[in-house]
Design a protein that fits this description.
This protein is mostly helical and 292 residues long. The chain folds into 2 domains: 3-75, no CATH class; 79-288, MetI-like fold (Orthogonal Bundle), CATH 1.10.3720. The protein is built from 14 helices and no strands. Helix 3 (64-76) crosses helix 14, helix 5 packs across helix 8 (166-179) and helix 9 runs antiparallel to helix 10 (195-206). It is flat, with a radius of gyration of 25 Å.
Amino acid sequence: MSNNETKLKSKAASIKAYSTLVYVVVIFFAILAVIPFWFMFMNATWDSFSIQSGIKLWPQIPGGIKQLITNWSNLQARASFSFPVGFLNSFIISTSATALTVYFSAMTAYGLSVYSFKGQKTLFAVIVGVMMVPTAVNITGFYREMSAMHLLGTKWPLILPAIAAPSTVFFIKQYLDTSLSKEIIEASRIDGAGEFFTFNRICLPIMVPALATQGIFSFLGSWNNFFAPSILLSKNEDKTIPLMVAQLYGDRYVDYGMIYTGLSASVFPIIVVYIFLQRYIISGVSAGGVKE
């Protein structure tokens, strides 16, 4: 056997070993990500006493379905918890905020990517810098501003600020820099199309993978948001699913089966959304990460 053949076999063995290691690491972290959800769904089929006695890796057999129905009935009997009301509030807020985030962030990213103007780089640096500021830092000023505008206790403070989403602007701009041909914009202008027509009819379809990706992230973030709604919402009829689930911990006796059922009900819709739309996340991140 020649030295070249030996080197090729050694290199192939190294690549195979590396690939195996990568798969093992990925599978390990995937299991770590899934375990909390698995525990949550499994605990929803047990009663509170059984849950406190130890970790449940499997559903209760037999009687798991019956216990799940019992937990759900106990959950619906709570005056502070109404799944239809909480689901509708979360859906309205998340959908509205996502629509505003995606459209106006795409418009901002389009302006930063297509137009050339003085201070362009500085403006983009400011947008990136705002991404580093945590929500807790400016919540006091935001609360006072909403109070002065008489918007406290309504859904508007959770919807309107979604127009300004620095992280979404950053992602879509990076996507446009690698995927949008400036010749298309110039051709559209030569044909007499206006700027809004060019953006809405020509550029938005090109952005679909990036818009879908950021739309999913925005929807999930808004749906799971607890901090801002807990401060800005006060009426039970306006509260979202996470707020209603959090109120289940207030009693002296905590029914863990009921709580895990409520958590499962609140997470199940976004898991379904993610399962059906995950291909857009992969395609959007892949396309935005390739530099031509």
